[in-house]
Amino acid sequence: MSSRASRTVYVGNLPGDIREREVEDLFRKYGPIVHIDLKIPPRPPGYAFVEFEDARDAEDAIHGRDGYDFDGHRLRVELAHGGRGHSSSSDRYSSYGGGRGSRGVSRRSEYRVLVTGLPSSASWQDLKDHMRRGGDVCFSQVFRDENGTTGIVDYTNYEDMKYAIKKLDDSEFRNSFSRAYIRVKEYDSKRDASISPSRGRSRSRGRSYSRSPSRSRGRSYSRSRSPRSG
User: Fold this and answer.
1) Number of structural domains, the chain?
2) Do residues 185 and 114 touch, judged by C-beta distance below 8 A?
3) Pick from 11, 67, 66: nearest CA to 39
4) Higher pLDDT residue, 111 or 199?
5) Are residues 124 and 107 in the same domain?
6) How open is the CA angle 83-89-91, to the nearest 5 degrees?
7) Distance (Å, whole) CA 141 – CA 115
8) What is the pLDDT of residues 120-154, one digit of tens each?
9) Do 165 and 82 share a domain, yes or no?
10) Which residues form the domain of 75?
11) Bridging pattern class, strands 73-74 and 69-70
């Protein structure tokens, strides 16, 4: 069977009032759905991870729904890149490029923070949603290797960056799989350019928890194959 990462698509720019059943209706014609993990953050847009039984169905869903207009929202659909915390060890990092319709094109800024102490299941989507509590995020990136997980987040302006450091340093980071207390500081290009995730983790409190109950609206589905329709 194909890997979970190759069978799971990320669906972005969802309206804040969307229901899981509506997400299912959008994608069920492409093949049997195993699981839907719908996330509605305090500040829209929402997003979801949709896992199919077959990687080919995931590819069909990307081709069929990327750019689709749903209730005035132009959906962004792409392979999840291990965003649900199941990336392979060869996946060194994942990233988010801000801006409407960016489709992964990086929009960097000089107002950058370094985030250490992230759980291994953290994705760029999770990091972005947590860090935008401090302001307008235009880029986020998560690095993974055998030593740990570290994030870099860019803000659109200096005030948001400073507020994020004050508000989110030593805050509790959560996703569907785990939670941990993270440290946030201003990124220093000279000091942090070569920082490794292991060094970042050593300065964090490292209070990681075992798998916690999901706060997302996830649901598993039966494996009966439904006929495709146009």
Assistant:
1) 2
2) yes
3) 11
4) 111
5) yes
6) 50
7) 10
8) 888 888 898 899 888 888 888 888 766 678 899 99
9) no
10) 4-86+216-220
11) antiparallel
The residue type of 6 is S
For residue range 72-110, what is the model confidence (pLDDT) as tens digits? 888 989 888 643 333 333 333 444 444 333 333 346 789
Tell me whether residue 109 is in a domain.
yes
Highest mean pLDDT among 44-58, 189-203, 213-227: 44-58
Higher pLDDT, 200 or 157: 157
Q: What is the pLDDT of residue 224?
A: 45
Q: Which amino acid is at 115?
A: V
